[in-house]
Amino acid sequence: DAMVIQNPRYQVTQFGKPVTLSCSQTLNHNVMYWYQQKSSQAPKLLFHYYDKDFNNEADTPDNFQSRRPNTSFCFLDIRSPGLGDAAMYLCATSMSLAGTHTQYFGPGTRLTVL
Amino acid sequence: AQKVTQAQTEISVVEKEDVTLDCVYETRDTTYYLFWYKQPPSGELVFLIRRNSFDEQNEISGRYSWNFQKSTSSFNFTITASQVVDSAVYFCALSEAETSGSRLTFGEGTQLTVNP
Asked: Partner of B92 for a Cys bridge, out of A54, A96, A100, B107, CB 3.0 to 4.6 A?
């Protein structure tokens, strides 16, 4: 089945220690998104890639970076995690064609910062 | 600016009851898309439905039904004969018809608890 895969599902890191979260997709979608979701809140868009074009949200901290080496993979790098970065990180994909705007989400990576 | 309001923060029902989750939206666009997602305790956001702004037909899928009314800017979701497995957080979301990907504006979510 075509899907969005995130690894790892759970990640524990130390304060200030860089961490990378991974997302891959078999849907062949051209748009990939990263969201941060804190407890009891709605997901918050950090950035997205439209093909190779990177689109950063205005309020996304510089501490968060992303890479998309090919269509299938996208990475979220947190350069110096703080306690406030503990959250669920969700990857999503969509196909940017007329009339098709549905985002499909992966299972998420729950990040703990010690 | 877009906005989605889910006024019900939490709803608790007993199994087999019908329950309606409310969603009201604001947008200046004439073309837009509305969505409902389900987020069970595992955390994954599961896509349930997409509705285009130019299609006001209501939809039924099994025990789920959706009522889209542009006149009141509402897109409500009804679960008939609720089951314990329906317990989850439900998000209503809105996106514009962008060409560079769809930016979703989420409501704050409604926590639905279905008790046996």
From this structure: B107
Burial per residue of B53-64, b for 16 or more beta-carbon CB atoms within 10 angstroms, e otherwise = beeeeeeeeeeb
| Min Cα separation A113/chain B (Å) | 18
Q: What percent of chain A has pLDDT over 70?
A: 95
Give the three-class secondary structure for A95. coil
* CA angle, B76 then B80 then B81, to 5°: 150
Q: What is the CA radius of gyration of chain B?
A: 14
Residues in chain A: 114
> Tens digits of per-residue pLDDT, B76-107?
999 999 999 999 999 999 998 665 667 899 99
Report the Cα B46 to chain-centroid distance in Å.
Answer: 11
* A61/A78 Cα distance (integer angstroms): 10
Identify which has the larger pLDDT, A98 or A102: A102
Cβ contact, residue pair A90, B45, below 8 Å: yes
Interchain proximity B52–A108, CB inside 8 Å: no
State the amino acid at position B33 in one-letter form.
Y
Query: Is A107 within 8 Å of B46 when comparing Cβ atoms?
Result: no
Sign of CA dihedral A2, A71, B98, A110: positive
What is the band of B56 on the pLDDT scale with cuts at 50, 70, 90?
A: confident
- Half-sphere exposure of A111 toward its Cβ, with a 13 Å CA cutoff? 29
